[in-house]
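Our consortium's second objective concerns turning raw sequence data into structural hypotheses that experimental partners can test. To show how far this objective has progressed, the report includes one record in full. It was chosen at random from the queue rather than selected for favorable results. The single chain below, 197 residues long, was entered without modification.
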Amino acid sequence: MSYRKIAPFYDLLTRIVFGGDFLQSKKQFLDKVENGDSVLIIGGGTGEILPHISKGTKISYVDSSKEMIEKAKERNHHGVQFDHCKWDEFNEEGKYDCILAFYFLDLFSDRILENILKKVDFYLKPGGILLITDFVNNRRWHAAFLGILYFFFRVTTGLKTKKLPSWEQATDDKFKLIDATYHCQRFIKACLYKSTL
């Protein structure tokens, strides 16, 4: 899977398709990230969210796309350690006060998703918070639009996943849901979770 073809205009594309909802959904619970927190961003993409995170945080930024990381570095956000690797290859010491996974879980099958969340749980401190924003499939048009999105990313990036995994159920089973909001006619869900330990 490679974002080389679409990285240069990815942000523009999301604004055209989703308007301001795409960014707003990611910003929804960022006020819960406190100054001085250690933050892990998984699949951070172009780094659009970086300017909206407190400058006093220590950020580890993981993405498998070299092109996306280069875009993120252009944000000039201080205190960010960039890791160009897949999530299953990430191997750093320490745990984090907050983990952010925005439009990341939709890239995987249900089988792989279980292992991804196990690793998220491992890196999240007891009492830490997990912010997840992603698509949901609750209406007929959601399913149709998801089909278009998966086809587009299969053609442009080589994405192998063909349908949205059951990320809500999988995440609800492992973490405590504190709050959630919907965006873009309930097609996007932003969730605030807390470690159960």
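The partners drew two points from this record. The mean pLDDT is 94. The domain at 7-194 is CATH 3.40.50.150 (Rossmann fold). Both points have been shared with the crystallography group to help prioritize constructs.
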